[in-house]
UniProtKB/TrEMBL annotation:
The chain crosses the membrane at residues 93-114, 168-191. It holds the Pfam family IRK_C. InterPro entries: Ig_E-set (IPR014756), IRK_C (IPR041647), K_chnl_inward-rec_Kir (IPR016449), K_chnl_inward-rec_Kir3.2 (IPR003275), K_chnl_inward-rec_Kir_cyto (IPR013518), Kir_TM (IPR040445). This is G protein-activated inward rectifier potassium channel 2.
Length: 423
């Protein structure tokens, strides 16, 4: 028995050795708590950040934010209409069917109870008895009569008689409540069908944003377009910079939102979106990209959220399309390829080139550094004439002073010689 156990252990050791030699060693690091993760070296955190970029708004426009630990759930019921509209289609259809089915069953049960209490079930087929509802002989027929009453079908086989006041009252109540249920559910379905979310699917943004020179200024640009022939009325564009910051007092503000000026003061943010347009943001002293250079851009953890709003021409409802750009999607030194060409009597847009860019000569310095270089280069040009005049004036005064000193020395020497000759 001892030999058997020794042989088994030897075999297991050999198998383990073979596995160690053949398979690579995998070390599973334990899951660290939040405090320990914060205490890790900064270079590890930077490497992890480079590997995975967490978006605030996805490319399709959906916000990547989940609301957790919401205790006041009753607030959703106070606005039940919006809650139903925001539900997914499968839940909306389920609620739609369930509401009608429950109301039909509820009123069908009441019709059956009335017939049962009055004794109509005991006088089925009795021509001398006047029931509350004629030809109602069970729960199934009561359920069918409830459906006919609420949907106003009126087949004419089951009818209410004038000898049943409680039935007349129930008929009035069911008619009113049925109208309210129809208005609520049909209105909910209509609003959900006519939502302008699908209209935003035909509003496209360029895959990348670019930074290049335009009219001698460094600009951040992206392109927007509309694929439909029906236009967006009163379209406007705005942009936000999503970046965490720390105040001077030490307060950390996660995902701080900063406005990016895309022509608010000049009116360039109001678009006539018939053909694709390039939206430009001038990087000046008020821009959050004022001190960012080409080398520094990949190190920044930021996200640009662009929002296009307008009214749908066909329905008049407000539509909003969103997209975002992270640092890896911002190309420094590129421009967008033109997509608009002039054909015979019309302009044609080539959407195959909508996302294409081409490289252009762009300085790698930040806008602040370019402004400083320009100011240094302008100093000799603006002060050259005056500085040269001042230099000439100083040289002339120095020469005059030297000539005056030499003249005084010569006059002194001549006076000394005359005195010596007199003596």
């Amino acid at each position: 028995m001892a030999k058997l156990t020794e042989s088994m252990t030897n075999v297991l050791e050999e198998d383990s050795m073979e596995q160690d030699i053949e398979s690579p060693v995998t070390i599973h690091q334990p899951k660290l708590p939040k405090q320990a993760r914060e205490d890790l070296p900064k270079n590890i955190n930077k490497e992890c950040a480079k590997r995975k970029i967490q978006r605030y708004v996805r490319k399709d426009g959906k916000c990547n934010v989940h609301h957790g630990n919401v205790r006041e759930t009753y607030r959703y019921l106070t606005d039940i209409f919006t809650t139903l509209v925001d539900l997914k289609w499968r839940f909306n259809l389920l609620i739609f069917v369930m509401v009608y089915t429950v109301t039909w069953l509820f009123f069908g049960m009441i019709w059956w109870l009335i017939a049962y209490v009055r004794g109509d079930m005991d006088h089925i087929g009795d021509s001398t008895w006047t029931p509350c509802v004629s030809n109602l002989n069970g729960f199934v027929s009561a359920f069918l009569f409830s459906i006919e009453t609420e949907t106003t079908i009126g087949y004419g086989y089951r009818v209410i008689t004038d000898k049943c006041p409680e039935g007349i009252i129930l008929l009035l109540v069911q008619s009113v409540l049925g109208s309210i249920v129809n208005a609520f559910m049909v209105g909910c379905m209509f609003v959900k069908i006519s939502q302008p979310k699908k209209r935003a699917e035909t509003l496209v943004f360029s895959t990348n944003a670019v930074i290049s020179m335009r009219d001698g200024k460094l600009c951040l640009m992206f392109r927007v377009g509309d694929l439909r022939n029906s236009h967006i009325v009163e379209a406007s564009i705005r942009a936000k910079l999503i970046k965490s910051k720390q105040t001077k007092e030490g307060e950390f503000i996660p995902l701080n939102q900063t406005d990016i000026n895309v022509g608010y003061y000049t009116g360039d943010d109001r678009l006539f979106l018939v053909s694709p347009l390039i939206i430009s943001h001038e990087i000046n002293q008020q821009s959050p990209f004022w001190e960012i250079s080409k080398a520094q851009l990949p190190k920044e953890e930021l996200e640009i959220v662009v929002i296009l709003e307008g009214m749908v021409e066909a329905t008049g409802m407000t539509c909003q399309a969103r997209s975002s750009y992270v640092t890896s999607e911002i190309l420094w030194g590129y421009r967008f390829t033109p997509v608009l060409t002039l054909e015979d009597g019309f302009y044609e847009v080539d959407y195959n080139s909508f996302h294409e860019t081409y490289e252009t000569n762009t300085p790698v310095y930040s806008a602040k550094e370019l402004a400083e270089m320009a100011s240094r280069a302008e100093l000799p040009l603006t002060w050259s004439v005056s500085s040269k005049l001042d230099q000439h004036a100083e040289l002339e005064t120095e020469e005059e002073e030297k000539n005056q000193e030499d003249q005084n020395e010569r006059n002194g020497d001549v006076a000394n010689l005359e005195n010596e000759s007199k003596v």
